[in-house]
What does this fold into?
Amino acid sequence: MRWFFYNVANPFIAIFLAVFIGVGFGLSLFTSVSIELWSLTFAACFLICTAFFAIKKPNFSLEIDLEVSHFRRMDRWLGYAPYLIFVPALVVVFSDTHFQMVFDGDIHTSYINEILVGTTPPENPFLPGYPPNYYWLYHALIATFANVTNLAPPLISSLLNVMALICIFAWTKQIIRALGYGDKHPLLVNLMVIFVVFGLNIFGIIHAADDILSGGVGTNISRDMILMGDSRLRSLWFKFLAFNSFPLTLVYYLMGIFASIQFIFEAVF
It folds into this structure.
């Protein structure tokens, strides 16, 4: 089960969504794309990606023991205990889908509804006839899922955010193991995962480089590597509770880091 998640389910989700959004955006560059065509593209990309994984059987894990078999089964189960801290927040989110509406719900639902009844690229919902003023591919993804599943867009957003959170934890754990810390006690490894995701600004190296290039050394660079160093990440957990594409973006960011580590290990070692 664990092998299936790390080698199939987790990478499949990221690759499938990237292919789907890429194809849909490409079509939108040349013609108006209705929600029916988005749904057809969704089905086609899903079948193509499924066939690719079935035929190629790509391996996304390093040559490490994902089961950490020298620990007892009870220790491995105990290792997941830190994730229970997120259960209360998830209960709140799924108990009322209107919760998402308090985070710029007007602009997000406007784009989603426009895509559901119209075509892409959408117009600016506040200034009809003008180009969109927001990244609308995320809304196209939500609208397509809503059309395919007949679920409410806020619920779909919550489900995608939870799925992204699980994938983020998985890619972070893969990175930690790839760097040689996978033999630690499962409880310690999972605590490290949570700390890396929520205790640090994992984009800090990018902000630090930007500060250096802009001559800001000595002003903000000392805070770049902590969460509060970036004002947009001060409430990182809320990024997983609201309408936004940040959780999915973080999945691809971490997937890229893991792929880079794999490339370096294979090329150098």
User: Anything to note?
Assistant: The first strand starts at residue 33 and ends at 34.
